Amino acid sequence: MATLARYDELLLALKPRPIRSAADYRRVLKQLDGLMEPHPPRERGMMIELLASLVEQYEAAHYPAARRLTPAEYVAELIEARELSQAEVSRGSGVPRSVLSNVLAGRRGVSKATATRLARYFRVPVGGFLEEVG
Predict the structure, then answer these.
(1) How many Cβ atoms from other residues are within 10 Å of residue 45's Cβ?
(2) CA-CA distance, 107 to 95, in Å (whole number)?
(3) How far apart are CA 73 and CA 88, in angstroms?
(4) What is the pLDDT of residue 66?
(5) Please, what sign has the CA dihedral across residues 33, 37, 40, 45?
């Protein structure tokens, strides 16, 4: 019972609804980011699943996998989608700003250590930083 009450509280606080614009998309990504933790309680897990479904639907319609992203493009997409600066990503991930800048400019690849830090920071699979993703 308590789990359902907490889930109802989350529903009222986050008010999930269909994603119809880039602004809605960014809002939901921020909500998801705020819910993420290593072992979320059941009600948070249910909300994460709901919001992730909304994101998947929006991305399938607006970002078709016509071509694969390079690791640098993937980093750039994550930064843009979450409206972050390179400095914020550097501070939060522990990746030096110069390394991040060189990766984004295509002057260097993404090392395994950098990929691990970025994956942990963005809460995404590490493979996207090491190979082309679609």
Answers:
(1) 15
(2) 16
(3) 18
(4) 53
(5) positive
Phi, psi of 79 (to 5 degrees): -65, -45
Per-residue pLDDT of 64-117, as tens digits, reads 665 578 889 989 989 998 899 999 999 999 999 999 999 999 898 899 899 999
DSSP symbol at 82: T
Every domain of the chain and the residues it spans: 2-62, 71-129
Task: At 69, give phi and psi (nearest 5°).
Answer: -90, 140
CB 92 within 8 A of CB 121: yes
Pair of tokens at residue 9: 């509280």
The pLDDT assigned to 130 comes to 79
Residue 97, SS3 per DSSP: helix
Asked if residue 63 lies in contact with residue 31, where contact means CB atoms within 8 angstroms, the answer is: no
Could you say which architecture CATH assigns to the domain 71-129? Orthogonal Bundle (1.10)
Query: Does the structure show a pLDDT above 60 at 16?
Result: yes
Per-residue confidence (pLDDT) for residue 134, from 0 to 100:
46
Most distant CA atoms of the chain, gap in Å? 54
Residue 53 has pLDDT above 70, yes or no: yes
